[in-house]
Amino acid sequence: MLKELKNHIKERLGFLNQTKLLIAISGGIDSVVLTHLCHKLKLNVALAHCNFGLRAAESDADEDFVIQLGNDLDLEVFVQRFDTKKYAEINKRSIQMAARELRYDWFEELANQLKFDFILTAHHADDNLETFLINFTRGTGLEGLTGIPQINGKFVRPLLPFSSQDIEQYAKDNQIKWRDDSSNQSVKYLRNKLRHEVVPILKEINPSLLQSFQNTLHNLKGSSVITTHAIDGFLKHTIEKTNSNEIRYKISEFKKLSNPQPYLFEVFKEYGFTEWNDVCNLLDAQPGKQVLSSKWRLIKDRQYLLLSPIQKTQETIIWVEENDKAAKTPIGTLFFDTIDAISLAQKHSIYVDKDTLNYPLKIRKKEEGDVFFPIGMRGKKKKLSKYFKDEKFSLLDKENTWLLCSGSKIVWVINHRADERFKVTPNTTNILKIEIENN
Question: Is there a contact between 240 and 250 (Cβ–Cβ < 8 Å)?
Fold first, then answer.
């Protein structure tokens, strides 16, 4: 196995030979064998161990074992203790998920602080099969069936080509000691249930299961590349607009497809949507209909689907005193400057007769019944809602529009239209330039 790993690293992971590495070690057979292999290959490694405090004396014995292993191999050891149960309770996580978050967050923090280039984990071929089966039983797309990535950011898994049997045989041949985690025998966890009850039956049916599975993964990854390429090409003529507030997709492009649902899934899967029939129904829904995930919303707006992050609603009012030179808003900073003469107004600036203003000014969102007198319309009043409709504002455009007001009167629909009542006239003696520097 040592020779095979050396060749695998040479062919696929050569960068490990010239970098500073951190091994995530539990004390179990997989991570202990990985440590011994890396030590024999003279890789520049240190050990990182998490004590989750979930098995009392057994957890502490694992920690002592890892520290002793580091001493035996003359390797630096980092240990972090966690109150996993408290973290899970506070953050409303399962114990398994809490341990995973704590583990990976600490590994990355440690690597960043101490300049480790990569973090090695001891995932192997059987782990890969179990992950495939977990994703399969829960329902997933093609991406969820392509297995554990060998390289994922800072995390590298050099043992993926090897089976648990390969690892156990190497440990026995080299008289390597390790710690057994008693919780790994409990079938109340899905992964353990698959490991102890399902995978053995599959291996009995097909003794070459892992090799067949590797071939399947290879084919699925190839199909995934084709799918990604097709979706990228589709999005080039489907996305019309993108900014920090929204991504706008043409509904017409989805409706050209004989079966749009797979495309909708591939385009929006990373945003956490799960109700795919509802997403598909948006194509023919009434404007304003939306589907929510935990952090995103997808909205039908005329001929578009609008993807936007869910933001906490804040009824914010920003006050501007007469002597203020600037005011920060969620969309940018407003600047106020008294000047002697005007030049051509731009979208992001207006000129007003300062003497027509009543201070303090107010910056706010739209309210029901808002009206204003759009400049250039010769004093004609217009409902703000009608202005939005005429200008073809999307639902998100309306939500993200801010108003500069003097008392109850709108001075400026910021970034869009000034109000006639505050414009500079030949009789104006006090000109105020108001300009926004957008975020």
Answer: yes
Kindly give the pairing relationship between strand 77-81 and strand 118-120.
unpaired
Whether 216 is covered by a domain: the verdict is no
88 and 29 within one domain:
yes
Q: Count of alpha carbons within 13 Å of 50, Cβ hemisphere only?
A: 22
Q: Which residues pair with 48 in a beta bridge?
A: 24, 78
Say which amino acid occupies 290.
Q
Number of domains in the chain: 3
DSSP string, 209-229: HHHHHHHHHHHHHHHHHHHHH
Q: How far apart are CA 356 and CA 406, in angstroms?
A: 9
pLDDT digits (tens, 9 = 90+) for 291-341: 999 889 999 988 999 999 887 655 688 999 999 999 998 888 999 999 988
- pLDDT digits 0-9 by tens, 402-432: 999 999 999 999 999 999 999 999 999 999 9
Co-location of 395 and 374 in the same domain: yes
Cα–Cα distance for residue pair 42/37, rounded to 1 Å:
9
Identify whether the C-beta of residue 397 lies closer than 8 Å to the C-beta of residue 388: yes
What is the Cα–Cα distance from 230 to 185, expressed in whole angstroms?
A: 44
- Structure-block tokens of residue 145: 């069936």
Q: Taking Cα atoms as reference points, which of 78, 6, 65 lies closest to residue 38?
A: 6
User: Tokens 């995103």 — which residue?
Assistant: 296
**419 close to 312: Cβ distance less than 8 angstroms:** no
What range defines the domain where residue 378 resides? 318-438
pTM above 0.85, yes or no: no
